[in-house]
Specification:
Layout lengths: L15 E2 L46 H23 L7 E2 L1 H8 L3 H14 L2 E4 L3 E4 L4 H25 L2 H5 L2 H13 L2 H17 L4 H14 L12 H20 L2 H14 L2
Parallel strand pairs: 1-2
Antiparallel strand pairs: 2-4, 3-4
Helix pairs in contact: 1-3, 1-7, 2-3, 4-8, 4-10, 6-7, 6-9, 7-8, 7-9, 9-10
């Protein structure tokens, strides 16, 4: 990502940056219109009564353009999350929705909606009349996230190590190996996704959807690079982190709680 021209030094103002092009398809056209807005005999246009229907008229399914817009918003959200993990959206920098939309080949609306979701997740904060600033996070916050994750996940994994049969753990082998392949590619975003998929599958065996959701949110936040850190983790670090997944899976298959405790604790301490 190329930075925009900076202002004079010492002004204290944030810089507005644009994101690198992402593989997000451009919108294929303006929001479509109903092909037949009026019924016979000059009836009111469809939807004219704010979703209310005349007597005996069946409800209509959502219009296709709304589905398309939702799809674009989801793709933009995924692209922005990947850019955060890769360090392309840098902590402390301000990014405008119109500029990001131009880069992605979409309007500012789905970008703004995606950024608002990231604001709810704590990744960015709204800067009125300017855009969104990427939150600056320090090493202390990462350490706190690692501690909370360990408090939540270690007891669960220890319980699962005693109760889940070896053949169930063996079914997760492809996910563990997928993290190694993703790490070998050197792509932080691909590894982050594979990493979350493995942990999510492990915790899902507890049968607690709220646990999976909360742990997943903490995991995602732990993957954002802190301020002042390198733009992204190196390939060697990713590979070492990924191999901890396979070692953990081996310990779970063996039903060895002591090794599970050590591996999970070390994994949270050293990983993002």
């Amino acid at each position: 990502m190329k930075p925009s021209t900076q202002g004079s030094a010492g002004t204290g103002t944030a810089r507005v940056r644009t994101a690198a092009p992402a593989r997000v398809p451009a919108q294929t056209g303006a929001v479509g219109r109903d092909r037949d807005d009026r019924g016979r005999g000059g009836a009111e246009p469809v939807g004219a009564a704010r979703g209310e229907h005349t007597h005996g008229e069946p409800p209509l399914s959502p219009a296709r353009p709304l589905v398309q817009r939702s799809s674009v918003r989801g793709q933009i959200l995924d692209a922005l999350r990947s850019a955060l993990v890769a360090g392309e959206l840098r902590p402390g920098e301000v990014y405008s929705a119109p500029a990001l939309g131009e880069r992605f080949g979409v309007s500012a609306t789905p970008v703004r909606e995606a950024m608002q979701q990231l604001a709810l997740e704590g990744a960015v904060e709204v800067v009125p009349n300017r855009g969104f600033r990427v939150v600056e996070r320090g090493a202390r916050e990462l350490a706190e996230l690692a501690e909370v994750r360990a408090l939540i996940e270690v007891p669960v994994m220890l319980r699962l190590a005693r109760t889940v049969p070896a053949e169930r753990w063996a079914e997760l082998r492809p996910l563990a190996e997928a993290t190694v392949r993703a790490a070998s590619s050197g792509c932080p975003a691909a590894y982050a996704e594979a990493d979350r998929a493995f942990h999510r599958a492990v915790l899902a065996l507890a049968g607690n959807d709220q646990l999976v959701r909360i742990a997943g949110d903490l995991h995602r936040r732990a993957q954002w690079p802190p301020a002042g850190a390198p733009a992204a983790r190196g390939r060697a670090d990713l590979i070492a982190d990924a191999h901890e997944h396979t070692a953990l899976l081996d310990a779970l298959i063996a039903g060895d709680p002591d090794v599970v405790r050590t591996l999970v604790t070390e994994h949270f301490t050293g990983a993002r």
